[in-house]
Design goal:
The structure holds two protein chains of two kinds. Chain A is an all-alpha fold. Chain A has two domains: about 1-70, no CATH class; about 75-315, MetI-like (MetI-like fold, Orthogonal Bundle). In chain A, about 70% of the residues lie in helices and about 0% in strands. Chain A contains 16 helices and two strands. Chain A has helices at about 5-10, 15-25, 30-50, 75-80, 85-105, 105-115, 120-130, 140-150, 155-160, 175-205, 210-215, 220-245, 255-260, 265-270, 270-280, 285-315; strands at about 60, 70. The two termini of chain A are about 25 Å apart. Chain B is mainly α. Chain B folds into two domains: about 1-55; about 60-300, MetI-like (MetI-like fold, Orthogonal Bundle). Chain B is built from 15 helices and no strands. Chain B has helices spanning about 5-35, 40-45, 60-65, 70-100, 105-115, 125-135, 150-165, 165-175, 180-190, 195-210, 210-215, 225-240, 245-250, 260-285, 285-295. The longest helix of chain B is centred in the N-terminal third of the chain and has 32 residues, at about 5-35. Chain B is globular. The chains are: A mainly alpha, B mainly alpha. Chains A and B meet through helix 2, helix 3, helix 6, helix 7 and helix 8 of A and helix 1, helix 4, helix 5, helix 6 and helix 9 of B.
């Protein structure tokens, strides 16, 4: 198999390297033709924007050409670190990503363990199909539903009132203290089924013989889950945990953008919304880019740390 | 067969109850919204609707489908989803095939170039500036071009090719005189149906569900609006204003006969329905197509 990769050289060692390389090049002209347009695409749409990072060190004026901008060094960054709104955005980002990790990470594992214990295949498949469904629905739709469900006349207030937990309906969407929880739990509701797929696939790979042996030894359901299933999917858990840590700061802004109201802005503005508001909203392109570069730097540090952590704990690199 | 112990039976019952609860919690919100969208708007204000309409009507849908830019938004959304899915899926498959060829000269280079973009990107503002410089503002192609290829999809397709299509197949076709383009189109792509079904679903859902690119790049051209963006607009008006204000802002001429709430519910269902229709057909490929890379890795 791997011999095929060196065929060009291996079969004709006496032919000058350059000529055989050219021959290979001409033989692969169709492959090159197929991919070249997409390489151009990736350069334009994914690498050219990286040049835009230079804007973070300039005072970008839209009416001047990009080559003719004034360089200001680290001015944008020092302004950024002096801005109180920036720290607020950092706080909101970290709060929601840590809450999201603490709740959104273990739940799919537990869900997968429970689904895995269902013996009736038909019921199992039904549960899976239904639980994956919200993943495919847009955040706009989810937000629309959340606004309805949590409105003073919505079902949550209705249930809480009829259970006697509260007397008067709560305007959940307008209360800053609920906002982080609403974001985290609506995300959990949307994604927990989908996120359990990976664990279920890993569980399918655990050898049935282990379960049979344990049954003969008299182990019950819980002990099998605890001593066989869980260790069996541990590598998957660790890889995904590491990736989640690497993405702690990349929580996006869609949920916050769509679920916030006028009264919850203080707790809703995450780093990306901050960039959107200051960078594009007020036209301070350089300042917004500086915030973006800072975010990328933190993300890179987290990713490297996570990778190192993975290497320490599992012996292999995720990236 | 060993007789189940008491604890195991209790566990089974509790587990089944939990799963039923999960199904209820997942489906209730959708059924609730569906019921509201099919209920008489004036009757809805009285409250108390659960998952069944009290006074059945289709007026919410009739009004929604004629409301302002909705007809156009439907056309644009369908167009971008169709064009975006076909181009995106094929582009990803081409790149995946080329980097799956172990003898390809620039295999490593091309692979690395795409994989790096999974971890670093320009960010919001540089991307925005690029789109502006390329003249893609208020242009239909801004929906297609910037997000054409997702490296994640490329890797999924490549692991599928690596694991289920023997290299000898391509080699023997080559001996028969087929070039790489023919091999890809006539041999590799047809064998990739299971994985391509999943990728197409992902890409299509992504296109259908996106609203932010409309908000950012095309809000200046009402002819390029999309359904999700229209729903988002209706929601924003609802969140920032209330009661009468909201009603008059949404419909200054007072021409629609339904309440904004009912309009929003009908709209929510309209943008969700197509996904519900496609989903069951592709769902059977999920586990197979999606986890092949993961299973191989472990």
């Amino acid at each position: 198999m791997s011999g095929a990769s060196s065929d060009g050289y291996a079969t004709a060692p006496s032919v000058p390297r350059k000529r055989s390389w050219l021959k290979l090049l001409s033989r692969q002209r169709y492959l090159i033709m197929m991919v070249v347009i997409f390489v151009v695409w990736v350069v334009i749409f994914r690498y050219v924007p990286l040049w835009g990072w230079l804007m973070a060190f300039q005072e970008y004026k839209p009416w001047k050409p990009i080559t003719d901008q004034e360089w200001v060094g680290l001015k944008q960054f020092s302004e950024l670190f002096r801005d109180r709104d920036f720290y607020r955005a950092m706080r909101n980002t970290l709060a929601m990503s840590f809450l999201g990790l603490a709740i959104g990470f273990p739940v799919p594992i537990v869900l997968a363990l429970l689904i895995n214990e269902l013996k009736n295949q038909k019921f199992k498949r039904t549960v899976q199909t239904i639980s994956y469904l919200p993943h495919f629905v847009s955040w706009v739709v989810i937000a629309s539903i959340v606004f309805r469900i949590l409105s003073p006349l919505g079902v949550v207030n209705h249930v809480l009132q009829s259970l006697g937990i509260i007397d008067n309906p709560i305007a959940f969407m307008g209360e800053p203290k609920y906002f982080w929880w609403i974001v985290v739990f609506s995300d959990l509701w949307k994604e927990m089924g989908w996120n359990s797929i990976v664990y279920l696939a890993a569980m399918a790979g655990v050898s049935p013989e282990l379960y049979e042996a344990a049954t003969i030894d008299g182990a019950g359901r819980f002990r099998k889950m605890w001593h066989i299933t869980l260790p069996g999917i541990m590598p998957t858990i660790i890889v995904l945990l590491v990736l989640s840590i690497g993405n702690l700061i990349n929580i996006g802004f869609e949920r916050q953008f769509l679920l916030r109201t006028a009264s919850t802005r203080d707790v809703a503005d995450v780093i990306d919304l901050y960039i959107l508001n200051y960078g594009l909203g007020t036209g301070r392109f350089s300042f917004g880019t500086a915030a973006g570069v800072f975010k990328s730097a933190v993300s890179l540090v987290l990713l490297t740390f996570a990778n190192w952590l993975s290497k320490r704990t599992t012996g292999y690199k995720v990236i | 067969m060993v007789r189940q112990s008491f604890g195991d039976r209790v566990f089974d019952i509790v587990n089944h109850l939990l799963m039923l609860l999960l199904i209820a919690v997942t489906l209730y919100p959708f059924l609730h919204v569906l019921a509201l969208s099919l209920n008489d708007p004036m009757d809805t204000i009285r409250g108390g609707i659960t998952i069944w309409p009290r006074k059945f009507t289709l007026i919410n849908y009739k009004e929604t489908l004629n409301y302002q830019q909705i007809p156009w938004a439907t056309v644009i959304t369908i167009l971008r989803t169709a064009i975006g899915t076909v181009t995106g899926a094929i582009a990803s498959a081409v790149v995946a095939y080329v980097i799956s060829r172990k003898d390809f000269l620039f295999r490593k280079l091309v692979t690395v170039m795409f994989v790096i973009t999974m971890y670093v990107g320009g960010g919001l503002i540089p991307d925005y500036m690029l789109v502006r410089h390329l003249g893609l503002m208020n242009n239909f192609w801004v929906y297609i071009l910037p997000g054409l290829i997702s490296p994640f999809n490329v890797i999924v397709i490549r692991s599928y090719i690596d694991s289920s299509i023997p290299e000898e197949l391509a080699e023997s076709a080559m001996v028969d005189g087929a070039n790489d383009l023919v091999i890809f189109w006539k041999i590799v792509l047809p064998l990739c149906v299971p994985v391509m079904a999943v990728i197409c679903l992902f890409v299509a859902v992504g296109h259908w569900n996106s609203w932010f690119d409309t908000y950012l790049y095309c809000s200046g051209n009402p002819r390029l609006t999309t359904l999700q963006f229209e729903l988002q607009k209706i929601m924003t008006t609802a969140a920032t204003t209330s009661g009468i204000d909201y009603y008059s802002q949404l419909d200054p001429m007072r021409t629609i006969k339904v309440t904004p709430e009912s309009l929003r519910m009908a709209m929510t269902i309209i943008v969700t329905l197509p996904i519900l229709f496609v989903y069951p057909f592709v769902q059977k490929y999920f586990i197979h197509g999606l986890t092949i890379g993961a299973v191989k890795g472990s």
